[in-house]
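Teaching soon. Got one?

===
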Amino acid sequence: MLDKYFNYKKHKTDFKTEVIAGVTTFLTMAYIMFLNPFILSGEFAGPEKGFFEFGAVYTATIVATALACFIMAFYGKTWPIGLAPGMGINAFVAFGVCAGMGYTPQEALGAVLVAGVLFLIISLTPIRAWLINSIPRSLKLGIGAGIGLFLAIIGLQIMEVVVDNPVTLVQLGDLGDPLVLLGCAAFILMVVLEKMKVKGNIIIGILLFSIIAWATGLAKFNGIASSPPPMTYLFDFDLSAALTAGMTTVVFTLLFVDFFDTAGTLTSVANVAGKVDKNGKVQDIEKAMMADSVGTVAGAMMGTTTVTSYVESGAGVKAGGKTGMTSLVIGLLFLACIFFAPLATSLPKQIDGAALLFVSVLFVRNITDIEWDDIGEAAPAILAMIAMPLTYSISNGIALAFVSYALIRLFTGKFSSTSPAIWVIAILSFISFVVA
């Protein structure tokens, strides 16, 4: 049955290869089941600052991930892609939308849902191709790197490598603290394993150093498995705030990051999978983007932030994955982890922070492809990179990048050759600053 549906022979693969590919991708992205609830719950900041319920998000993460992978498997069936709540966006919702702007989890989920519906509409129309071709590559790369730096400062704070200072704002933490040292060691191990091409380096680093922390009494072990925590936020979204002017920048940021992150990820995986034709067109990308957008809508309904395609899927493609069977395996493996909430709550925050810091490196390394010889292209990209961590907001970084890019184009006589999309986004960004 599966052989007939996924047509292994046509794609020159088989059941065993697809399963191996699915396991490979799962190992590279399994960390999200621990990091997503950790970030959204604000556990490391103390219970008084918790935004979402940890257990509820844990279950929602598992269910939304599995559901999105199943949609990709059976609708975008030629795509061996793993999907899950995206890093960067979850931090933006936790720190920017809930902590910074004071919105409730339900209101934040309403914004995620609206952005997902807009993504779905875009995926069904020619607007998709127009937008992809309208936004300069330098801005896409700079924004991606900025998200990485945003994750890096959060990761370093969680690890307590960086702490608050009333004069200099930040300073070096206590490197003599055993848990801080374990977190640093976990980060180094993740890098070493990545360099050695060991699959699952992040999850290995998290579990290994957590075991050391438990064994030495530095952290409390709460158990391995239990019945899944209730999905408190299931269909519990509030659209009232998402449809107000004040939430416009939030919805735009969620949509922008998800749209271009998905497009970039699918293009990257397509190159590895040989799905790009001689004219540079990606085969069946419409189905993949549709599956991704539906996954975002489903994720918001389950109670978690934006679900998106993971670039880690490339690991499974390299292992031979060529069909949606790989996605099906990834979804089933995540679903099998739904009982591990006690294990997730046992992980020391310093080691979770180390994983977040490592993920930030994967985002930042894209800066090598920015057009450094063209200051008009490079400067807005750098501004986005710097503004995101220093203003603690992805949306601020995106807005400043577009406003500066538009002004540079205007004053260098390139108004007519600049896409209308740039002017629209720049004007909306400027308005958002004025009315904020």
Remarks:
- The chain has a mean pLDDT of 92.
- Strands lie at 83-85, 162-165, 169-172, 307-309.
